[in-house]
Amino acid sequence: MKAVWYNDVGPAAQVLHWGERPDPVPADGEVRVRLKTSGVNPSDVKNRSGARGPMTLPFQIPHSDGAGVIDAVGAGVPPSRIGTRVYVWNAAWRRSMGTAAQRVCVPQDQAVPLPDTVDFAEAACLGIPAMTAAHALFSDGDIAGQTVLVTGGAGAVGEIAIQLARWAGAQVITTVSDAAKAEVAHQDGAHAVINYRNEDVVDRVRQTSGGAGVDRVIEVEFGGNLAITRQIIRPGAVIATYGSMAEPTPALPFYPLMFANATIRTLLVYLLAPHERSLVIERLDNAMQAGALRPRIALRCPLEETAKAHLAVESGMMIGNVVIDID
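RE: above sequence
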């Protein structure tokens, strides 16, 4: 099969190789997916660059997300699954075989049936971005009637969080950094969009929420935004956060958070418990069936141009997801 891989960490153009590798064979309980697309996420780029440390495996085919059609099954898997359209998650998590290849083998529950209404490019965004958004939103139950703040509303996770929160019946407020991102957030269904570079976020959130504050924050930058967040949460609020790059070791204002009875929920989508993963998959399937979930694709590249896709993600300039076309 054709694949992209690296044997050492470093710059994309230097360490990524494209060529032939042996076709994988599904083990007991696994399915093999003939991939149509592969999703490129910031975590894939950080792993390849060495930002998360040296390699622990002899080689790595990158990317955890992708979509395609099951073409073979291992022992214990019903043969009827062959020919099923699926999306995959966690393909490269602690494994050498990711989705930047024509085929990948994964445990059967990591190949999720895909509705016919969702194309393979959109499906390549359902692993890390969509599952992160869904778990951040729904890990404490339904959010209908709540006010939700999504920071970074034009990011890959943020835009899906807006779509899902709107679908789930929440009032959605989001923050962005420029007019182009504001337009994207409006298109995704945000009720109020705040440009944090030239607007007072605290005042706008209080105005929009009638002075009550927000019930839930879907937070891309926990430490960097904490001084604002503490002022706009209502009693019992949840801060569900999946990043804190600007301030990785934030000082917690303990008593303001305590007197707000606030919950800080950190999450890493790779490590969801089985019951959490099942709930996330169910939410995403319901949203897709309702036509409420449409990941935005910013760039598509062929497999042999995976280095270009990595550079696009590293640039931080993409509004939407970067997807590799494999077939």
